[in-house]
Design a protein that fits this description.
Length: about 425
């Protein structure tokens, strides 16, 4: 008979379990949540997260929704709370974790790429890293579930657009820290590449891309073509821009390439104001890609800054990125090829289409308010908007939200003008 007593309460919003043990438990615990999804963590995994000995004592753990707001379009997001109390009556400890897990209707591999990033790649990137974190710690990574550090409990939060210049500078510095970790592996590049499968190599052609990702991009491309046509702009250049974007994304031998985030919209960037300093962490690495180091910088700036803001701060942010990147490389005794500021600026200009395409692809979704974002992500709606069409939805929002319309139209104009200058 297993030496483990359990009590499971199924509530509408929270499920709570208790474990008392005298030896290491080995059974799988399944708890029904409020949406009839199952949260699967073994007793041993719970104990490991709690960091307690298994010879005596007890612990309780509970699940509840992490937020009432839409945080992402895939999976469900939970707050796992673990309370421990050792038998020697030492002080009780309460730990919290952010948990992402698949929900009914999701692809069973929805978190597969992010799990590979945290399980296979991040440990290699961080093994000799000695600086400020760029992402939350990951304690458990499976293709159906990720257990992460709870940044919210440390004062980090998602801020709404527009970002302040201090927040943009902090985010750019964080992107530089992320990139430095893989650029530093230049001497072990074969080891890094051996852990990369095809899902982390997106550039080149449509045929070489993951089919779901390709469909998402093509649906967005058709929406961009419609908006360009409505503005009496050359809509034929949009598909050429997307083709050019794919070409520029392909990593080039001898050039600075980095494991990049590739999804830097506001919901994936968290900030904390502390002691007069703005700290930043990047979350959600589901689209992470091995590509040119400037792609993240371009996509971040073009998604989070309109044209007037870029005209004032774009050069400053490029310089700040270079300073922070070189600071990290020097701190970690980088032995590779020098990356002067002039090269960063040239590479940025050469791959500018990546930022422009990133903006027209992302902004129609990232600029939605909470109510519309929830509507976009409803079961059935999200699948349709992802794989079939989102033009009608975007048209509807543009009719009722003037600031949304101006920003989307501005991004489309910027892309068309860029392409026309290259014809």
């Amino acid at each position: 008979m297993p030496q483990c007593e359990r009590k499971v309460q199924q509530l509408k919003t929270t499920s709570t379990d208790s474990i008392k043990f005298t030896s290491a438990p080995d059974k799988m615990l399944q708890v029904e949540d409020s949406s009839s999804h199952r949260n699967r963590l073994s007793d041993q995994e719970i104990i490991s997260l709690a960091g307690v000995e298994t010879d005596s004592g007890s612990l309780k753990f509970s699940w509840k929704n992490f937020s009432q707001e839409t945080l992402g379009h895939w999976g469900t997001y939970k707050l796992l709370t673990i309370e421990t109390c050792a038998s020697n009556e030492s002080k009780a400890q309460t730990l919290t974790f952010f948990v992402k897990m698949t929900k009914r209707g999701d692809s069973p591999l929805v978190f597969d790429k992010e799990a590979k990033f945290h399980h296979d790649l991040a440990p290699l990137m961080l093994q000799n890293y000695r600086s400020e974190p760029w992402a939350p710690k990951c304690f458990l990574a499976r293709d159906d579930l990720l257990v992460m550090e709870d940044l919210k409990s440390q004062g980090f939060k998602i801020v709404s657009n527009p970002l302040s210049i201090e927040q943009m500078r902090s985010a750019v510095a964080t992107i530089a820290r992320l990139h430095s970790c893989s650029i530093l592996l230049v001497s072990d590049i074969d080891k890094l590449l051996s852990r990369l499968d095809q899902t982390f190599l997106e550039g080149g052609t449509w045929e070489s891309m993951d089919s779901s990702r390709a469909l998402w991009l093509k649906v967005g491309m058709r929406t961009t073509e419609y908006i360009a046509s409505e503005l009496s702009l050359d809509s034929d250049c949009i598909s050429k821009a997307y083709d050019m974007d794919l070409e520029k994304l392909e990593p080039k031998d001898g050039e600075p390439n980095a494991l990049s985030h590739r999804d830097l919209w506001p919901n994936n960037i968290m900030f904390r104001e502390k002691n007069g300093k703005t700290d930043c962490r990047l979350v959600d690495f589901q689209l992470s890609t091995f590509t040119s180091y400037v792609v993240d910088l371009l996509e971040f700036i073009y998604i989070n800054a309109d044209k007037s803001t870029r005209e004032i701060y774009e050069t400053e942010l490029i310089i700040h990125y270079h300073e922070k990147l070189m600071e990290q490389l020097k701190r970690h005794d980088y032995q590779g090829k020098e990356i002067p500021l002039e090269k960063v600026q040239r590479d940025y200009d050469d791959k500018k289409v990546c930022g422009l395409v990133g903006a027209v692809q992302c902004l129609p979704i990232s600029l939605l308010n909470k109510e519309l974002s929830s509507e976009f992500s409803k079961p059935g709606n999200f699948e349709y908007h992802s794989r079939v069409d989102r033009t009608e939805f975007v048209k509807k929002v543009m009719r009722v939200d003037e600031s949304y319309r101006r920003r989307i139209e501005g991004a489309v104009r910027d892309l068309v003008e860029y392409m026309q200058d290259r014809v």
